Design the sequence.
């Protein structure tokens, strides 16, 4: 999900996931046993995504994907085929597409990948306060964007 949230293209994300595990295998001997393995793995994936993005998407800001974010499952959601749940995911996906890149990335890492603020800060190499601020802005912007569609006052 991290690779997809950065690249927003299913095939490119799958390539990065494969490359991440290849890199993991190559670098396993330098992993510090007392470190956070999940954070280390996500850091590798993030770095590969950023390199790939810079190399392949520098001139192409609008990326399209065959599988939109609304088809991906939230960490805490049940996997039932409830049509209301599907509609909500589609609505949230449309809102996410309108967020700034860093806000969307933090929101996806928190709500789709199930990471806490500290883990996100470590992976993105930014301050904890910045992560919290980006998440707050993402939620606020999603409320503003989605409130009218969901019948909520903004």
Sequence:
């Amino acid at each position: 999900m991290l690779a997809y949230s950065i690249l927003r293209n299913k095939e490119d994300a799958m390539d990065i996931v494969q490359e991440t595990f290849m890199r993991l295998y190559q670098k396993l001997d330098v992993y510090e046993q007392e470190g956070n393995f999940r954070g280390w793995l996500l850091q590798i994936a993030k770095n590969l995504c950023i390199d790939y993005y810079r190399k392949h998407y520098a001139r192409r800001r609008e990326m399209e994907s065959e599988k939109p974010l609304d088809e991906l499952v939230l960490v805490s959601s049940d996997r039932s085929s409830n049509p209301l749940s599907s509609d909500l995911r589609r609505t949230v996906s449309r809102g996410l597409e309108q967020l700034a890149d860093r806000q969307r990335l933090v929101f996806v890492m928190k709500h789709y990948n199930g990471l806490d603020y500290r883990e996100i800060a470590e992976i993105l190499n930014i301050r904890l306060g910045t992560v919290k601020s980006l998440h707050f802005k993402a939620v606020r912007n999603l409320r503003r964007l989605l409130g009218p569609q969901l019948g909520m006052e903004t």
